[in-house]
Amino acid sequence: MNYRRLGRAGVKVSEVALGGWLTHGRTLQDDTTTQIVHRAFDLGINFFDTADVYNQGEAEKSLGLAIKDLRRESLVLATKCFFPFGEGPNDRGLSRKHIFESVHASLKRLQIDYIDLMQFHRLDLETPVDETVRAIDDLIRQGKVLYWGVSEWPAHKLVEAVLTAQDLNAIPPSSNQPNYSMLHRPIEDAVLPVSEQYGIGNVVFSPLAQGVLTGKYLPGQPPAAGTRAADDKSNMFMAWVMKDENLQRVQDLRTFAESLGFSMPQFALAWCLRQRAVSAVITGATSISQVEANVTASGVSLDAEVWAKAESILAGTSE
């Protein structure tokens, strides 16, 4: 496993991380989650991502149980807040009150003394950025949080957060967590350049496009039983990516990747990691074998000609 700095911060995270949005505390039993987390740790994964809203706290609880027997200092634990976690008007957003209460609630569910990376799950247009920055900086100074970041913030708001932190003599954000894959690339225009400029490390989610980039879905055929695309509780964001034209390009990419000696998931994850502003790819897993496959993407380095060929396949221009 290779490790990268989280942007300009000194902390190092594994290039391949383990997340639990659809699995921890939901589709997996706690003992299975523990087995997967322990195997991931044995393979060099030190970065584990979750959020308070994932199954309304159950994902954090399950991850907390899974890490109890692991050396705390060897882990980089990331969680998030923003989305509603109750019916009250202050049970959401990025106000000082909600951030403060969310951090303490996550600490209890995870059964830890501090959070390595606290992330703001979305942008809060109702709360001034300076209030949000000062609140998380206070928690850092109290030792409850070590680093902070955001998720799915546009480039101009990343800049505002950095400059606001500078004005307040506060710690700036270390990370951003955007959706990024071969099939979803909007961050390339502005977010990645801004991240490089200001030292923000991107820990990208859905790098396999919710499993589509594994190559298991075939054009013109219904998804197999037991897959995410066949589960109406898990496929709510997949309609756009399941179009036949996308599935065909993935099959073409798969043929190309395998001709080079790589699996399609390995190739797709390495494609994300080719970006200097990407610190880690966050992967999910329902089995130990999936973790074992995903970690092989770490350290893969390919020539520009290979990526150029992949680009032509993605664009549908490859002969």
Could you characterize what this model shows?
Helices cover 36% and strands 14% of the residues. The chain is an alpha/beta fold. It has a single domain (3-211, 271-300), classed as TIM Barrel (Alpha-Beta Barrel). The strands form two sheets. It has an eight-stranded parallel β-barrel, surrounded by four helices. A two-stranded antiparallel sheet has the order 1-2. Strand 5 (76-81), helix 3 (96-110) and strand 6 form a beta-alpha-beta unit. The radius of gyration is 19 Å and the shape is globular.
Task: Please write out the topology.
Elements: E1 3-5, E2 12-14, E3 16-19, H1 30-42, E4 47-49, H2 58-66, E5 76-81, H3 96-110, E6 115-120, H4 129-141, E7 145-150, H5 155-167, E8 175-176, H6 191-198, E9 201-205, H7 244-259, H8 264-273, E10 278-283, H9 288-294, H10 304-314
Parallel strand pairs: 3-4, 3-10, 4-5, 5-6, 6-7, 7-8, 8-9, 9-10
Antiparallel strand pairs: 1-2
Helix pairs in contact: 1-2, 3-4, 4-5, 5-6
